[in-house]
Write a structure and sequence with these properties.
This protein is mainly alpha-helical. It has a domain at 13-99. Helix content is 64%, strand content 3%. The protein is built from four helices and two strands; from the N terminus they run H-H-E-E-H-H. It has helices at residues 23-47, 49-68, 76-89, 101-124; strands at residues 70-71, 74-75. It has a two-stranded antiparallel ribbon. A hairpin with a 2-residue loop joins strand 1 (70-71) and strand 2. The longest helix has 25 residues, at 23-47. The chain is elongated and about 95 Å long. The model has no long low-confidence stretch (mean pLDDT 86). This is PrgI family protein.
Length: 130
């Protein structure tokens, strides 16, 4: 008897639109065709069929990667953006800084002492009229 396995994690299931492809895959493959086919026919006359096919494949490869590659649920452009941020945009050394609760309490206590001293000092002198 034939049976179909049902995955336990249903969040990884993507809805298919046409030809058993997702909307993202259809858009990327369509863009690859729009880029690759005209390039093939333009280059075929000057360099030959094999070199034109190689140029077409190399031009279409980024779109295929954008359509198909996914790691940990993240598409390729997210992974590339994170890589660029880590390698080029963010500082190389990021020192670990803690928020010391005791130091915050000590600063607050010092401020409270200053406020009490100001209030106590005003009580000694009569209020001035402005």
């Amino acid at each position: 008897m034939a049976y179909v396995t049902v995955p336990k994690d249903l969040t990884k299931i993507k809805s298919k639109v046409m030809f058993n492809l997702t909307k993202r895959q259809l858009i990327c493959f369509s863009a690859a065709v729009v880029i690759g086919l005209p390039l093939f026919f333009l280059v075929k006359g000057s360099v030959g069929t094999s070199a034109a096919a190689l140029c077409m494949v190399l031009a279409m490869l980024p779109m295929f990667l954008l359509a198909m590659y996914e790691k940990n649920g993240q598409p390729l452009e997210v992974i590339i953006r994170q890589f660029v941020e880590v390698k080029f945009l963010r500082p190389k050394e990021r020192p670990y800084q803690t928020n010391n609760f005791y130091a915050a309490l000590a600063r607050q206590e010092q401020l409270d002492k200053e406020v009490r001293a100001i209030v106590k000092g005003k009580e000694k002198h009569p209020k001035r009229k402005a």
